[in-house]
Amino acid sequence: MTEMLPVTNAATDAAPAAKKPALPDAQTVTQVKHWTDRLFSFRVTRPQTLRFRSGEFVMIGLLGDNGKPLLRAYSIASPAWDDELEFYSIKVQDGPLTSKLQHIQAGDQIILRPKPVGTLVHDALLPGKRIWFFATGTGFAPFASLLREPETYENYDEVVITHTCREVAELEYGRQLIEDLKQDELMIELIGEENLAKIRYYPTTTREESPRMGRITDLLKNGTVFKDLGIDPINPDTDRGMVCGSLDFNKDIKTILEDFGLREGANSEPKEFVVEKAFVG
Ligand SMILES: Cc1cc2nc3c(=O)[nH]c(=O)nc-3n(C[C@H](O)[C@H](O)[C@H](O)COP(=O)(O)OP(=O)(O)OC[C@H]3O[C@@H](n4cnc5c(N)ncnc54)[C@H](O)[C@@H]3O)c2cc1C
């Protein structure tokens, strides 16, 4: 079978919503936003039967040139209660999937396997007072979900989100999401203004000049983060962590958290922090 998922220009489509799914796992793109030449986000319809925990990931993709699904792991960036699903994606120019996926438009279809999994979930952590979300690049995606999840604020008195990118523009998706979150009427109603005030946003850049420069790993080790935020250093009795970045970043943060006395947990064995790769390689 050579059936292709159409990647068409929505502007020339008379009625994109009327298109029939080309595959059982097809979902329709409802919105696309390009943030930089390397980053974009998009929203798709949500299968009625899909249940997931905020922070989990699914396999999504397009039909490859050989007519077979070309799928990759993607964190769901929207919260579990949202009617639609949001994703935040890299554009790898020679990447098998994202060289094509970056051209999707509203009305197009993608494949979404409705089997959510992952370790960046509240169930994998023991109770605590302060939660740290450590992200680099598209590793922000699972935290875009968890920051919009009421349970995050029910479980913790303080929510610290650190996001490190090379350039300022690469922080924009996260910066805008957090700013909108605090002003959005639905979010205020759902989560509460006093709960949204628990968010401490700590963005840093490593290459382009910005108000906060440097790797979060260095800023944690030399205590700058704690000084800047006016908080006590990380303590295993009160602090919990979730980490999502490159393999090297995850390894470095893991060592730092272990030095502070925290232990890595999993769904089956909740402890003080959990880690997930933002990508392989
Ligand atoms: C658990 C998990 C969750 C993931 N969630 C997301 C997500 O929410 N958003 C997302 O964009 N990607 C995510 N990825 C990566 C994703 O699965 C793909 O690798 C990515 O979409 C590129 O696909 P590709 O086929 O174009 O290139 P690939 O052949 O998959 O990758 C080519 C190379 O590009 C680089 N690369 C791939 N992904 C990224 C990235 N996200 N940031 C920086 N460099 C990268 C790596 O060096 C990789 O070797 C996730 C990966 C895992 C394992």
Describe the structure.
There is one protein chain. With about 280 residues, the protein is α/β, with parallel strands linked by helices. It folds into two domains: about 10-115, Translation factors (Elongation Factor Tu (Ef-tu), domain 3, Beta Barrel), CATH 2.40.30.10; about 120-275, Rossmann fold, CATH 3.40.50.80. It contains nine helices and eleven strands. The protein has helices at about 100, 140-145, 150-155, 170-185, 185-190, 195, 215-220, 225-230, 245-260; strands spanning about 25-35, 40-45, 55-65, 70-75, 85-90, 110-115, 130-135, 160-165, 200-205, 240-245, 275. The model is unreliable at about 1-15 (pLDDT under 50). The chain binds flavin-adenine dinucleotide (FAD). Flavin-adenine dinucleotide binds next to strand 4, strand 5, helix 1 and strand 11.
